[in-house]
Predict the structure of Amino acid/amide ABC transporter ATP-binding protein 1, HAAT family.
Amino acid sequence: MTDSILKVDNISLAFGGVKALTDVSFEVPRGAVFSIIGPNGAGKTSMLNCISGRYRPNSGRIQFNDRDVTHLRPNDRADMGIGRTFQNLALFGHMSVLDNIMVGRHHLMKNNWLTGPLYWASPAQKEELAHRREVEEIIDFLDITHVRKAVAGTLSYGLRKRVELARAMALKPKLILLDEPMAGMNLEEKEDMARYILDLNEEFGITVVMIEHDMGVVMDISHEVMVLDFGKKLISGLPLDVMNDEHVKRAYLGLEEDEVMQEAG
Ligand SMILES: Nc1ncnc2c1ncn2[C@@H]1O[C@H](COP(=O)(O)OP(=O)(O)OP(=O)(O)O)[C@@H](O)[C@H]1O
Ligand SMILES: [Mg+2]
C-alpha cells in the first residue's frame, strides 16, 4: 500500500450550468511530483482550488494526511501544510521581496510582526529574528539573495514567479500546489524553475502537485501524471504510459487517428 499525502474522492464542481469537474478521484503519493495536464478549461485550476479550499466542491471528499479537509477554510488548510502559488502572479508589487516572503510566514508566527508594538517586545523580536533566518535560507535556496531588498513589482516575470514560490515555501508546506509555475518563461527560466521544483521536492521533502502545459518539463520531472479533459479524469499513471495512451494523444496532444496509428506501428 502506498502512503498517500492527498486523497481526492469523486470531486464534482459546477458553476451554474458549467461542469468544471465531474467525479474526479486520484491519490498523490507522499514525496511525489504529481502533474496535472489537460487543455484550457479542463478544470485543472478548479481542482487545485478545491484542494486549497478556495472552491467548495458540490460533492466528493478531500483528505490530506488522512484528515478530511473538504469543509475546512483555506487558512486552516494552509496551517496544516498545504501551500500554493497562483496561475496569475499574486505578489504585493509595492512591497520588498523580503516582506512578500514574510507574508507567507505570517501564520506561523505567534506574535504578529505586522502589528507594530508587539514587534518591539523582546519575545516577538526574537521570534522575528528566527523567522528571518529561515526565510533567508529559502531566499538563498532560490538564488534571490541579490534582489531580497528590491521592490517586487520591479522584477522580471521569471524572478517574480520565483519570489512567489519562496513565499509559498516560507509557509513550510508539506504539500505545495503550483499552478503553471513556468508559464510565460523563457527556456532558461523554465530550466531554472524545473530545478528548483525538483530540489524543493528532494531536499525539503515537499510533495508537489503541479499544473503545467510544457510537456518536456512534465515528462522530465513528474513521478506521476493525471490528464483532465472537460472536467473529467482521462487517465493517470507514469509519465511515459500517459503520453503513450491513445486517448491522450487524441484528446490532448491533438493527434489525428492515422498519426496515432503510425506512432503505434
Ligand atoms: N470562478 C469561476 N466562475 C465561473 N466559472 C469558472 C470559475 N472558475 C472556473 N470556471 C470554469 O470552469 C471551467 C474549468 O476552468 P479552470 O480554470 O479550472 O480550467 P483550467 O484547466 O485551469 O484551464 P487553463 O489551462 O486555461 O488555466 C471553465 O469552463 C471555466 O470557465
Ligand atoms: Mg488554469
